[in-house]
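in:
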């Protein structure tokens, strides 16, 4: 599990005016909340938070807040964020304080590794789930789960219970849903191909 630190300061002002003032200083408004923790309004450095989000661990990075008062030393994860749809700039962040000794639910990316046998035969690899929910201690959150697809032929599929999970990591659901499959040509595509061949033959005659 990736861990890092983030400089924060407590803010008193609320509303759009305060948010605009913070952004002019290279900061964005944020809040911290969690079980047994008093909600706290914060200001964080935009570039520093953007670097954390853009890291390999991304949203699953454990962040230790560095600042004054009760927030200093709190371990959090980025639970939500607002991004300007046009400028793609960070506007606001929500941090959830976590207990390092209590299991938590997280979404972790799935990464297909290798080229499947079915693709080599002309099939298509389809990733049905790009991330899955896991339950584990915060310190055991994997950056991503890799899935070896090299043995999959056309028509084959991998299900969530086929994934090898790291020690201490569990699946919260009982449904064994499909995460990756290899498909061939559809019946419709085959019919269109056959029609094209027939038309070509007629033209040749």
């Amino acid at each position: 599990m990736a861990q890092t630190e983030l400089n924060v300061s407590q803010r008193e002002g609320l509303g759009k005016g305060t948010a605009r003032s913070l952004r002019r200083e290279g900061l964005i408004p944020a809040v911290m909340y969690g079980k047994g923790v008093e909600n706290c309004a914060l200001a964080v450095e935009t570039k520093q938070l953007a670097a954390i989000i853009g890291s390999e661990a991304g949203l699953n990075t454990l962040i230790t807040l560095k600042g004054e008062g009760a927030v200093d030393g709190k371990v959090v994860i980025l639970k939500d964020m607002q991004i300007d749809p046009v400028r793609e700039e960070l506007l606001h962040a929500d941090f959830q304080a976590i207990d390092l000794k209590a299991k938590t639910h997280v979404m972790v990316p799935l990464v297909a590794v290798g080229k499947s046998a079915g693709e080599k035969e002309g099939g298509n690899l389809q990733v049905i789930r790009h991330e899955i929910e896991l339950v584990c201690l915060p310190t055991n959150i994997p950056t991503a789960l890799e899935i070896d697809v090299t043995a999959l032929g056309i028509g084959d599929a991998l299900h969530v219970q086929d994934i090898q999970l790291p020690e201490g990591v569990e699946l919260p659901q009982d449904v064994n849903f499909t995460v990756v499959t290899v498909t061939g040509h559809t019946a419709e595509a085959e019919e269109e191909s056959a029609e094209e061949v027939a038309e070509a033959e007629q033209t040749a005659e």
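note: Residues 34 and 141 are 18 Å apart (CA to CA).
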